[in-house]
């Protein structure tokens, strides 16, 4: 029986990205929908707008996952200097690199649904 080496790099181009990192990022059920919303948007999205777009996500789950995605370098957070209650989020360049993967997954779903 062959064992899976989870520490093996996925590609030679991304030696620091290993399967365990990928699984950790996408293990939460809200990671992919959050990143998709942010990557698909051409401008930052307000927290409350994300909350509505991702219904039925709870505020607790959305806040927790946004914090985690910020820690991983996939999301930027900006708080308005004029109105502190206005917080917006946007995908980083690193997260925008996921666009081709999202497009491939969408094609795969269309083919095999």
TrEMBL record:
The keyword Transcription regulation applies. It comes from the Bacteria. One of its GO terms (molecular function) is DNA binding. Residues 14-113 form the HTH hxlR-type domain. Keywords: DNA-binding, Transcription, Transcription regulation. Transmembrane segments: none annotated. InterPro entries: HTH_HxlR, WH-like_DNA-bd_sf, WH_DNA-bd_sf. PANTHER family: TRANSCRIPTIONAL REGULATOR, MARR FAMILY. This is Transcriptional regulator. It comes from Advenella kashmirensis. The lineage of its organism: Bacteria, Pseudomonadati, Pseudomonadota, Betaproteobacteria, Burkholderiales.
